[in-house]
Amino acid sequence: MKIAGIVRRLDDLGRIVIPKEVRRIIRAKEGEAFEIFVDREGEIILKRYSELDCLGEHAKACVDSLFEITGYVSYITDRDKIIAVSGISKRELLNKEVDFLIIEVIESKKEKFINEFDPITNFFIRIIVPILVHGDCVGTIILASKDESVIMGELELKLLQISAKYLEKILED
Questions:
Q1: Which residues does residue 48 pair with via DSSP β-bridges, in sequence order?
Q2: Residue 158 CA to chain centroid, in angstroms?
Q3: Using an 8 Å Cβ cutoff, are 59 and 48 in contact?
Q4: Is the confidence at residue 156, as pLDDT, over 90?
């Protein structure tokens, strides 16, 4: 989707202001980091910077371990999309956009026991734990189930908290 009709001029320091309407649509917050790319046609592309993208094998090992221990689908999101998944075909979930349930946890920075169906993943999300780096929520780690009757407790919460803390330590170093 393109928004047409908005023109901004480059100032003397080389800055262009992103219009408020566009910032609202992309949920951009003050101080948030973006990567800047230039394509072959000279178009400038802004992409939200994800600190979690650099986790790679750590994120994969984390969700694989959670799945092996609990038997539940586990996945990690950044602020926009799913970046690591275990317990289901990666093609089904990897890079899918996050739902409002996850955005709510990111904004509140608080873990949440939940029993709601996520239409994006087609799972019942059970526990969401934020991943905080220097006080900012950069993503979440989640346990989910296809079975609506599954109840998770303090043990699963602790596993997610430990996993989130591990990822936080990697990112803070």
A1: 34
A2: 20
A3: no
A4: yes
